[in-house]
Amino acid sequence: MFCKRMALLLGCLAAFSLAGCATVGPSSVKLSAETSARSAELAKLHQDLVRVYFDGERRRVETFLRETWEPQFLRNLLGISGIMDDLRASISFDEAKRNELSVAMKEYLTDPSESDKLANEITATLTKTRATEPDAVRTIIRKYVPDAKVESATSHAAALLGTAEPALLILDFAEAAHAEMEKQRAAMIGPIDAAEKQVLAELSDAYTTLARAQGTITARLEAASRSAQQQDQLLQAVGVTDPAAIRMRLAGFSDTVTSALNDAGVKKDPNDILTTLRNALAKLPGRSAQNSTPAPTPPPAAPPANPQ
């Protein structure tokens, strides 16, 4: 029985040796799993921090474009686009335009002879400012034309004078300027967006690798923990649960065997040798009375031969 238990014990020791003499408990597995969860949280926080950083860089560039570059760009564009000349031309009226307007207004007037006066007043007013052209034209026409014909006359005059032309010129200029500013904004912000995308991708790869490695560690810890539990069961089967105690018992076992062999070796009588060895081995660690088997009675010594 003792030999079987010692064989089992030696098997456990071999398992400990292969495992690096380390014991992995459930708490280590739990800690590893919690570390994996914390790593995922840290990855999200890290990515959010990167996004906040690049948002700040984009705002800095956009503020610079809006406050420094765009005003200069618009001033230069006004100078090279010819928009001011086009606007000046659109708010002036030549003689042909006045004559055309005068003829058109006659059909609305009670006194057709006032058509020249009406045309001159309209063109003079619109030359000063065309910001409120329709209202200005309507106000003047109302002084000459009966109320029933005011709106018709106003629409007719506006069509002849091209009252929407300055507004259209300004709208075209604004659209062109806006398109160019958006183009330059995209050119400036694009590299920042690309850098953010690259950093986030590298960060994601790094944390993915970390999570994969941590998962492997957790799996190995779980396997080691199960192995440790099995080792504990085997150790309990031989009555020992502490590896240090195992080493101490083995040392005691070796010392006892050595002592037993030394003591028995000095005996001359065969029966004395066996008795001495048996008594010494009975002192081995783990040897108990219930596991001991009765020692066989040594055969009686042979009587000395009678001399012939």
Structural account:
Helix 2 packs antiparallel against helix 8, helix 3 packs across helix 8 and helix 6 crosses helix 7. The two termini are 50 Å apart. The N terminus is likely disordered. Among the domains are: 170 residues, no CATH class; 39 residues. Helices cover 77% and strands 0% of the residues. The chain is mainly α and 308 residues long. The chain is built from ten helices and no strands.
What are the SSEs and their pairings?
Elements lengths: L1 H17 L7 H56 L1 H8 L4 H11 L9 H14 L4 H10 L7 H12 L3 H73 L5 H23 L4 H12 L27
Helix pairs in contact: 1-8, 2-8, 3-8, 4-5, 4-7, 5-6, 6-7, 9-10
- How many angstroms separate the termini? 50 Å
Number of helices: 10
Helix fraction, binned, reads over 70%
- The total of beta strands comes to 0
Shape: rod-shaped
SSE string, helix = H, strand = E?
HHHHHHHHHH
Q: What would you call the structural class?
A: mainly alpha
Question: What fraction strand?
Answer: under 5%
**Mean pLDDT across all residues, rounded?**
68
Radius of gyration: 54 Å
**Major β-sheet, in short?**
none
pLDDT < 50 runs, ≥5 residues = 1-22, 287-298
